[in-house]
Automatic annotation (TrEMBL):
Organism: Chiloscyllium punctatum (Brownbanded bambooshark)
BHLH domain: residues covered: 1-53
Protein name in UniProt: BHLH domain-containing protein
InterPro entries: bHLH_dom, bHLH_NPAS4, HLH_DNA-bd_sf, PAS
GO molecular function terms attached to this record: DNA-binding transcription factor activity, RNA polymerase II-specific; protein dimerization activity; RNA polymerase II transcription regulatory region sequence-specific DNA binding
């Protein structure tokens, strides 16, 4: 009985690890950044991108609204900022961090 429980636990861990590796491949970041991520970072980024998608909707805007500027214009605007952009939900959950955060903090997501 002990042996089967141990085997079931290993099978469950292997399945979880395989799904985390699948999540890693879906993240919209460079391969070099992906190679440095731990399993915890992978799950954290997956949650962040999911929250961002839910918050902004599938098209990047709240349902029933018209975006003020297009995505390329927004990207240009964020890059022209003298700092970086960070967005949090009303619950304090991280939704978005601009790519230029590494220039200012030395870290990237």
């Amino acid at each position: 009985m002990y042996r089967s429980t141990k085997g079931a636990s290993k099978a469950r861990r292997d399945q979880i690890n395989a799904e985390i590796r699948n999540l890693k491949e879906l993240l919209p970041i460079s391969e070099s950044d992906k190679s440095r991520l731990s399993y915890l970072h992978i799950m954290s980024l997956a949650c962040m991108y999911t929250r961002k998608s839910v918050f902004f909707g599938a098209e990047g805007a709240l349902e029933g609204t018209v975006p003020l500027i297009s995505s390329p214009e927004l990207a240009d605007f964020v890059q022209s900022l003298p700092g970086f952009l960070i967005a949090l939900s009303s619950e304090g959950k991280l939704i978005y961090v601009s790519e230029n955060v590494s220039e200012h903090l030395g870290h990237s997501l």
